[in-house]
Amino acid sequence: MRKHTHMACTSIMVGKKAAMDGVNYIARNEDNFVANWPKRFFVQQSVSRRNETYTSPYNKLSVKLPESGYRYTSSPDANQDEGWYEEDGINEKNVGMSATESVVANEKVLAYDPLIEDGVAEDSIVTLVLPYIDSARGGVEYLGNLISKYGSTESNGVEFFDEDEIWYMELATGHHWVAIRIPDDCYAVAANQMGIEEIDFNDPKNYMWSDGIQEFVEKYNLNPDESHWNFRKIFGTSTMQDRHYNTPRVWYGQKVLNPSSEQNPESSELPFLRKPEKKIAIEDIQYILASHFNETRFDPLGSGSQEDKKRYRAISLSRTANSHILQLRDAKKVSAVGIEWKAFGIPSFTPYVPFFTNATDIDGSYSFVPEKLDLKSAYWLYETLSMVVESHYREFADINLDYQKELATWARRKVATIDKETVNMSGSELTDYLTVQNHKIAKYFNDATKDHLADLITRGTELSELTFKMDPDL
C-alpha cells in the first residue's frame, strides 16, 4: 500500500448545546510528515452541464463526476503531483466537511477486508463529496456509497456538519465503516486512532454503518466482548504508538474542557464523547488546536525534563500545514451563516483568520503560493512568522500572544459588524458583499502580521550571541 505525507492530524467537534454561541463546529489540524508543505485556500466555483471524469494523481482512482456541483471553499495542496487534498470546506448549501483524520485498523479485520489500492483515499474525499451533498447525514451516505462501489484505500475519520447535526464517520477497512451523530451537548477529540465506541444498531437516527458489518464481525469472530459491540475495540488498535503518539492529544483536549477529570494520558479507555464542564467558545477550540501540552511537563517548549518534553506528540506542530475551524451559525439570526477560520504556519504562533464561505473568493494572498518564500503569500507569511517566534521563543512568546489576542479581538468585532450590516441582505448582494469583506479581512491580518514580523526581527537583532560589550575597566 502506498504511503503519503498526509497522515497525522487532530480533530475536534463541538455540538451546538455544548458551544457558548449555540452553533455547531468541526475543526482539525492537517499535519504532514514534513514541515514545509504549502497549502492554498480559495473558492471552487459551482459547475453545471459537466461531462468529466476525475482521476486521482495519487492512486489513479477514476470516478465519473455528476453533471452539477455546488460552490465550496477548498484548501488543496499547492503542489498537486501527489493529489489534490482539498481537506476541508463549506459548500453553498451550508454543509461542511473535513477529511481526513488518519486512523489505523488492526490486522484481524484487515485480514478479511483489506484496504483497496485504487480506492477512495484522503486526496479525493472532499473533491468527490462536498460539492454534491445537502446535509451532514447526506454526506455520510454519499461517501458510504463511494466506499461500497470503489472501496477505501486508507483507514480514515471524516467530519460532516450542517446547522443541525454533526456526524463523524470512521472508515476502517476496504469496505466497512460506522458513523455517529455527535450529541448536541457533547464534544469529541480524535487523534489518529479509532474513537467511536458503542454502536446501537437499533438507533439509525444517531448511528450509521456499512452494509453487512455485523455479519462480517460475526462470521470471522472479531468481537472480543460478550455483550457489547464496540467499534474501537473490534476494528481499532491499542499499541505503544497509540499511547505515545495518539491518546495523549485526546487526553490534553479533554483536560482543557474537563479540567476536573483525572485521566491517564496513555489510557486506552479515554471516552470518545464528553460533556464539557463549561460552554465551549471558539477561543477554546483555537487554544486546543494551537496547544503543545501547555502548562504541563510534557510541553516541548516548557521547562520539563528532556525525556518528558519528547515523551508525547503534541497537537500543534511545525508540520501543521493547515489548521481550520468551520462554524455554521443560525440562519434565523444571521445572514452570513458559514465562517471558516483559517490558520497557516504553526497555529501556536499564528492567528485564526475568519473568512465567510458564502463568497466567490477568499483573497489572492491565499491562492498565491510560490515554491520559494514570498511575503505576498499568506502561507509563506505565516510560516515565516512561526519560524521567527520559535527561534527566540522565550523572548518573543508574550509579544506574539499579545498580537494573537489583538487580532482575535478584532476578528470578533469585525464579524459582529458584518452581521449588523448584512441583516437584510440575501442572494447575490450578500455573496458579493461577503467576498469584498474577505479581501478586507485578509488585508488587515496580512498587514498586522507584517508589522508584527518587522517588530520581532528588529528586536531580534539585539539577541545575537555574537555580541561583545567592552568592559570599561579594560
TrEMBL record:
Catalyzed reactions per annotation: an L-aminoacyl-L-amino acid + H2O = 2 an L-alpha-amino acid
GO biological process: proteolysis
Keywords, ordered alphabetically: Dipeptidase, Hydrolase, Protease
Superkingdom, taxonomy of origin: Bacteria
Molecular function via GO: cysteine-type exopeptidase activity; dipeptidase activity
Family the UniProt entry places it in: Belongs to the peptidase C69 family.
Enzyme Commission designation: 3.4.-.-
Protein name: Dipeptidase
